[in-house]
Amino acid sequence: MKVHVDGIEVELPAGTSAIDAVFQSGGDVPYFCAHKYLSPVGACRMCLVESGSPRKNPDGSFVMEGEGDAATPKIFWFPKPMASCTMQATEGMHIRTAKTSEVVAKAQAGMMEFTLLNHPLDCPTCDKGGACELQDRAFEYGYGASRFGFDRRHADKHYPLSDFVILDQERCIHCKRCVRYFEEVPGQEVLDFIERGGHTFIDTEEGGLPTGFSGNITDICPVGALLDNVARFRGRNWEYDHTPTTCTLCPVGCSITVDARNGRLERIVAGENRDVNEAWICDAGRFGHPFASEERLTTPLIRDEDGQLVPATWDAAIDAMKRGFSGMRTADIALYLGADSTLEEGAALEALAGVTGARSVDHSPRYEVSVTAPQATLTDVATADAVVVIGADLGEEAPVLELRILEMLRGGLIPPEFAHGTAIADLRLVERPARRPERLAVIGQESRLWAHAGHRVSANGRGALARLTHPDTDELRAVLALLEGAERPVIILGADVLNGASGSFSANLSDLAARTGAKVIAIPAAANSRGLAALNLVPRAGGLPLSRLPEAAAAFISRLDPGTRAAGFTVVHDTHLTATAQQADVVLPAVTNYEKRGTVQNLEGRLLPLHPAAIRTGEAADLIRTLTALAEALGVKAPARGLRGAHALLADRVGLNLSDLPARGALHTFHQTFAAPAAPHTPKLWTERMRSRDRDWVDRIQDLVEGGWTLPVAPAAPQPGGDD
Amino acid sequence: MTYFENRQPLVADIFSRYPDSPQGRRSALMPLLREVQDAEGFVSESRMAEIAALCGTTATEVRSVMSFYSTYHTLPTGRYHLQVCSTLMCALAGSDELWDHLVETLDVQPGEVSADGRFSVQKVECLGSCGTAPMMQIGDDGYYENVGPGKCARILASLRQDLQPLPDNPVPVTVGTDGRQVLATGQAVGSSVTGLHRLPEQAGGDA
């Protein structure tokens, strides 16, 4: 299909919207209400273009213009500018944007004037300032002045929609993105326009937004109306250090951007990764970051003469470890690490265990069973024609997976990719989409997903898979029939079935998958459990698992909080003074995954990169560097002293080259996995530290004032070299 | 207690007018709202939730639709709900003075009900009686036209004794409980002229 945009001819797939045609041609159109992953509605009227199409005579020939060979199909222009986001581009269509059309430029400037009529001029105090679509478009396409000489509309400027989201009703420009988001993405119709005309405002009647995916509306709001309450008033957009990285609170591995200011993690916004989270993240991933900046350990702690933990230098900590481990065989020191550690850290620990000969090595949480059935990707889930979720509470285990399942229910549409990226207004996305609940079966405990499922079977997780293979009720028979009748079925397994799954489980699952042609996602226990399973990080013969920590002669525990200690000398490497750290002999400060460089593998087997955000962490160190300190205390040579060494170890050990990992990640299957009996694991997304614990700003400001602090104002005297 | 609990035949009748699908159920929203408002004078939050449950939607959706129309009330109204037209013609003819007078003498603000429970007031947009401005409508009963100071005083005095004077003109078109539009004379208008018929399936009537 050929379309002419401002005289440039572009070749486009049928069904493309006019706005995408313009972007594909390299042009620009301002827009507020259109959004890559939401249905186009044409609410803001900013994306006006002039358009016209050739017309055919009754005999099928084109109505021509001009004489003889110079004749071209005559273009019949629409009498008025049209909203390009809701208009489908057609063969031979001509489009004029503001670049070539005075009419369009004037119409857009006029629309902008309307939009700004009631918009308060509080950009200097607005959190969106500097990253505001309205600001940018007003600069590019507005008149620059308002002719409206009357009072603006006044409304509530601090209207809490929930604990996490605050609405400024004056700033809202009624683009309806948030309303459509809730209807179309999480399938919760909890937000809508109230009143009409100039009185319209956004509100909910459900007593607050449901926690889960509500934070995404703060990302998609084109103005500063919906704001992230955790990050509100914490910094301006140009002050933040933006770090695109991967969220490791659950095994989905959503793309996020971590914004830090003055060494504090202040805000997390969703990144875009079409293969993983599209543009959405869960509330825990967005709002649950206070732990990265609050009550952090910044120096090592050692025991003084009174047995109290006191701050010390790394050298003193290494000396303390030397004393503590003296006279002990290095093989007796148990090594444990949290399963959200990176692959590089895992490789470093595995290699060190090889050097010390440690038998008690473990990572946690993890499941015993390793699934060998064909692996489904998240895109497979979104495009499946049947999904069976067994024993999973996705809200706790992998929230964004739930969104991908809901995407499947509304037709599994994935916008096509253009040279300019994802379609801005994919016309196949429709408002209030018809869902197909009959394609989703949920077996297990009741969860949030139940409301969307056509088949619900209440079952105890343990035997759920066996019961599905040999159905004993009509409900289960219906689910099995759904699986067998589907062309692209996906089975999703959660903690309830994977906990304590025995050896025959994997074989049964493979049988079922082979019989029905299903692909499988077994949700790993933690962010990188899947990746770490490829390394020998499980108890070797005679070794102790983490659950038997109290029997260990001595232990090094990294970022785990079992709440107990080893019988002998215990070293804890953690970000906070946890219950375990309080019992330790030496505590070493760790960095969170927001501050690491490394690689994790998500639930579909995609390797995703971590990048370090600019967060002040004192002397905290990641596991690789901490292990060099441990090696020094033990008098052995550390196999990896840094990230590059760990990469070399990984290349050597599992043939993995991580040096050129694309930003979107890459699927990878490890050929060998290590499994061992594991303690049952209860997934829990929100932990206590993820909610901010120092909210007493007033007190802190009071302290500052009483402490004689004054606002740092530039001295009045002229500065050498001017005062710019 | 819920409003529709012991009115199941009525609910069934309302739903029978719409396709038996999730979208069809949502369409029953307007008559259900009208039913509650006619009976109680306003639609409270609990009623919104009840209607939402009946229609298979959320209370937010119900409130959104309801707040779009100025004829649905979320706050209680008095026995005589005085709706003063405030659009251009009536404004030129003195509707602002009429409004100020009503608010002052009845001692009610919009959203309030006078102490005796009789009066509530509301400014409304054009009711299509511009030739007889200023005008107001009382409840759903009819138009009181050319309401000057003397006429206003007479109307209020009668209302205080619960003797509502006959309106100068009935409301031009009303919608009956069966969903049909009729003139005050009883003559069917709008689509009611030809009767409401089910569209043939092929024409996409229920699609």
From TrEMBL, chain A:
Pfam families: Fer2_4, Fer4_Nqo3, Molybdop_Fe4S4, Molybdopterin, NADH-G_4Fe-4S_3. The keyword Metal-binding applies. Binds 1 [2Fe-2S] cluster per subunit. It catalyses: a quinone + NADH + 5 H(+)(in) = a quinol + NAD(+) + 4 H(+)(out). NDH-1 shuttles electrons from NADH, via FMN and iron-sulfur (Fe-S) centers, to quinones in the respiratory chain. Couples the redox reaction to proton translocation (for every two electrons transferred, four hydrogen ions are translocated across the cytoplasmic membrane), and thus conserves the redox energy in a proton gradient. Belongs to the complex I 75 kDa subunit family. This is NADH-quinone oxidoreductase.
UniProtKB/TrEMBL annotation, chain B:
It comes from the Bacteria. Binds 1 [2Fe-2S] cluster. It comes from Deinococcus indicus. SUPFAM superfamilies: Thioredoxin-like. GO terms for molecular function: 2 iron, 2 sulfur cluster binding; metal ion binding; NADH dehydrogenase activity. Keywords: 2Fe-2S, Iron, Iron-sulfur, Metal-binding. This is NADH-quinone oxidoreductase. Belongs to the complex I 24 kDa subunit family.
